[in-house]
Amino acid sequence: MLIVDSQVHAPNTPHAGPIDGMESANLLAEMDRAGVSRCVIIPMVPPGDDASRSNPAALAMARANVDRFAVMAPFDLTRTANVGLLSSWRATPGMLGIRLAFLRDPNLALLTERRLEWFWSAAEEEGVPIMLLAPNLSEHIERVAEEHPRLRLVIDHLNLHPSTAYDDLAVAVRPLVALAPHQNVAVKASALPCWASDGYPFQSVHGALSDVVAAFGPRRVFWGSDLTRLPCSYSECVRLFTEAVPFLSEADKELIMGRAVMEWLRWDPDRSSTRGSRSAE
Fold it and tell me: What's the pTM value of the predicted model, to 2 decimals?
């Protein structure tokens, strides 16, 4: 089975302060031990950074390991002049798309005040997929998905807030499940042990995961670890999906564990450019 991790923070850069990412050698060793073939790198960007240092470091890591890594990079939404970068974003070797977080201002206000139309339109036009984390903002995600049907959106971590402990995950994911009719929206079932109230096999997350897979289907659900935050081993995070949950068929696992995210992001590690079709069929 091809196993592709849809989120690992890397590399560890000196300016990241208390935020850690993984260096290439350490990450490759962890991947080999857990049986992970490839991973999507999310560069570390501390508040106020414009990604000018973290993105090149991550891309260099991907170019050095083209068969193992590719990048979903941050984008500074406060600089509308940067819209021109999107026309060649996926032409950059190792680059798959953009990853955004809407946890605090300025990004949060830009989303809720509808000041990002320039960005969504350009990303849709240029075929740049977006990964995003926007807890408690499902109505805003739905609006973007409706108004930009060719824009491929991937919602991180079942859209759970990283600092919230939920009493009932099945209730917490209901706003996410409501987005499933939008065929241009997919979801990362990533970092789930971080919200588990028990140890492996993490029975407390099974119900929410089952609801999400039933709603979106295995072609729009992508396994991921968020490795540097895991409260368990990398192997246990893998085996949660490959062994522990009873409701996934072998065909489901093939898609969720890797094939689906590579299809959605059009990640072909054999090509120097990852730019692809602009449709969101």
Answer: 0.91
